[in-house]
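Before the break, one more example. Copy the sequence into your notebook; we will annotate it together after we see the structure.
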Amino acid sequence: MNKVIILGGDHYNALGIVRSFGVNGIKPYGILTTTSKRKKDNFCYLSTYWEKTWFALSDAEAIDILLSEFKDEDEKPVLVPSSDGLAYEIDRRLDELNRFFIAPSINGKQGEIARLMDKKNQTEWAHKLGLKTAKTWCVELNEQLDSFYNEVVFPCIAKPVISSEGHKTDITRCETLESLKSLMEELRGKGYHRILVQEFLNKDFEAELFGCIAEHTDRIPYLFSKHVREWPPVGGSVSCHQFLNDEKLVKQAEHFLRQIREYGYRGNIDIELFVINGELVLNEVNFRNSGDVYACFSQNVHYPVFSLLDMIGEDTSQMNSDYTTDHYAMNEATDFRHVLYRGMKLCEWWRYWKKSRDYAYWFSGDMKPVWRKYKYFLKKMISKKNED
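Here is what the structure looks like once it is written out:
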């Protein structure tokens, strides 16, 4: 069978994917980007489900390792990117890599995923597909901004145009023109050349839509969940979520997926949505695996395996593609910050822990990476408390 190679950061995203493959009897290879190649500084490689792993200090080095180790296989290995940087790098070099590997793409066209990772391009693309989005401006920080300041609406959210151009910690909500202008100066000082500004929508809640889009079947295995909490509270990632079974929202979610399928994308996908007055509004599409993959286990929707089988032309009819319950899932290490820094009572947090059936780290039968991550998290929290 074709080998599976997961490429991404030392992160719970890659950990969730390898576990999904592992419980289905497939042992992937992993090329993990990290800031240190010392084993004691990493955790994901400790999973029992890996066949073998390598560390890389950059996305470019990860591709070098990929070509060095796997370009001469009899059957093309399947690439599964779990980070924005490696999804971008694979797509940027798609023509070269397609000679040796099977990779996610949009109609097999090099650079199309990379183009749509630019949020300005993605907004224009979404409008062409008939998908609703917030009002959006792409601001060149070295240009005259008077016309933009006359158009922008408040409150608004400012964030990097492409994930690789900045940091999530720089995502900022601005309530006034003065605060926005101050932020622009601050971002210039940090080396930003451009920034995306979006209308802040008064949403009912945020939602996650994630799964895979296949080529050889019309079935689209996916999971659809409502944010209960995020961290950081503004512009952060979901830390606790509950699966949605609202019929109207599910129909809209499936429409979004079909539109993206019609456009020609094949591979794992992660879609961030707002729910406003019962309607879905697109926030962002990530053409790579979702960090929420850890929520696939109790629902038995192993979409990474489904995608693999489809990519190599194998039968997917026995794979489940539907979730049935509205239970909770939690990124426990991230969500616990609400107890430490936001005044959430431990007993309330524990109630959500017990209601959850899937966790980003905790996983019976694969606890080595859990203890390593928990130890790191605990040391970091103690250090921060001492600084405070």
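The first helix runs from residue 12 to 23. The mean pLDDT is 95. Try to locate both features in your own notes.
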